[in-house]
Amino acid sequence: MAEIYHATATAPVNIAVIKYWGKASTKLNTPTNSSLSVTLSQDDLRTITTASCSASFDSDALWLNGAPHDVSNARSQACFAELRALRKAKEDQDSSLPPLSSYKLHLISENNFPTAAGLASSAAGFAAFVRAIADLYELEETPTQLSRIARQGSGSACRSLFGGYVAWEKGSREDGYDSIAVQVAPESHWPTMRAAVLVISDAKKGVSSTSGMQATVATSTLFPNRANVIVPARMEAMKKAIAEKDFEGFAELTMADSNSFHAVCLDTIPPIFYMNDSSRAAVRVVEEINRCAGKKVAAYTFDAGPNAVIYYDEANEDLILGVLKKATDHVTGWSDKYSRISPKVPDGFNDSLLAALSTGVSRIILTGVGSGPLKVPKENALIDNEGNPKSS
Ligand code: DP6
Q: Is the ipTM of this complex over 0.95?
């Protein structure tokens, strides 16, 4: 067997506070509007991927959580082609380099969170995919340059190449070249940002974000105003709120943008519903927390599914988690780290709102803002000597 070259990287999940919803070009996977997200800590949510190549491999292959997955789709192929072209250019300049660009790739990928949780994992998945191959090929491209490639795998993946607070600038070029991710602020700028992910079970399989957003662009009359007027103004306001660590401004924009995104979904023909009764219960509880606090101390946001993500500043942890614990004390996720939190609501809180949350939430993931992709030492690679997934 010929030599197996490999590199391993991890990449984080990101949750948008200004949402990407709508494609300007389906071919280039460019968006109709810019978006902005918070990268979540990889201690709690991350994908790890080993990228390997060898003259002995017969075909490109991908294993996800141990099961083989198809890589013939246009998105994976676009990422492979771009990364191989960058490696080929290096090899053409330096003939002493092994011709990795001509070898087939084996990718082995694992998530540290349950896939059943219904958390959008394509962002972390494609970011780890691109980062691991770029490391294998010893590419010198910056995360922003690599974001152009990850974007073609899944739009939101381009934002997972950075930690902290990240914008995906939609760009204006016909070829999509300037549709890239940039870091707005590192995690160290505002390290006290926390996120509680409420995993809400959903019996039926929802509409995928890819097809949902295309239907919205094609049919929603509210959508052009969102993409062309509302979001550009919110992007600027959100960058300012983050620069000033203004949680109230951040919260107002986050909740308004989540609601605007779900409003254009409802305005799609036929309408798309991602939030369910339990999601709406989470909205009411957050609104009640804010009413009792007399200011916005918590902010909800929802993606293309019923799960709620609640952002808050660590300074208000006892208040926010006290209420959430009162409603969801029975679910997985309240580790010993949170044993000091007593389940309680503030004075004047409308307790009756908690019942609907209690029944709807199946798990809680308590996390916070975190770093971008990380390199993993060779000895922790997920690959065996034959180029297959190591049995763990
Ligand atoms: C609601 O990135 O999954 O999470 O580019 O088609 O792969 P594709 O879409 P995807 O869409 C994410 C949509 C969202 C909002 C967001 O993350 O900004």
A: yes
